[in-house]
Amino acid sequence: MTSSVIHRPGIVVHDLTLRFGSRMIFERLNFTIKGGTFVTMLGASGAGKTSLLKIIAGLATATAGTVLASDGLPVPGRIAYMGQQDLLYPWLTVRENITLGPRLRGEKPDRAWAEHLLERVGLSGHGNVRPAALSGGMRQRAAIARTLYERQPIVLMDEPFSALDAITRATIQTLAAELLVDHTVLLITHDPMEACRLSHRLLVLSPHPAGLDDSHPVAGLPPRAPDDANLLQSQAELLQQLMRAAR
Fold it and tell me: pTM score > 0.70 for this model?
């Protein structure tokens, strides 16, 4: 493990509760994500995964409980957020989309860093084109580059690859795992294969009332090959666990 990984802040969730009126979404959730690790959360629809991610990001407020980085400081301000849609602005070029953050803040974009990221995600010849000229996989690669541009140590991802076809999805999964190797990552997905390919650790959020299970092991290190025997076994066991949790 490199020193850049060791010093990445982790995420500490303590007694987190979310209630909408009389409906309890989750109550007193406790878990810690170690700095520099890739953690995936799964669970049935309605269990509160996206709400939990938004609370960690500072985009929503919990009823009770706390979310802090492992150094005791707040998480918001040190995160990059990547959602299901690439959200590229159609009237901007790929390069302008990647550097959108500093443009909105009135800062001068770091062109050299943007060009480096374009190369890393395989879009070095597409910086001046607009999103309409890109395939779905290329657009998602641009979104990854925009996420990495901010140089934030914590990355939150809400089903970012769900709209891609199977082959493109596997390719982008591998790319994301490689590019985010020195970040603290929390990914939400409904795909057991994706979770087992990318994660150091799995969290399963069960509904009614929500509970958190982190007992599912994943052998080896990510990104795992799609035909890896240990991955296939872990995927099958995880799917069975999810089916039991949904009953």
Answer: yes
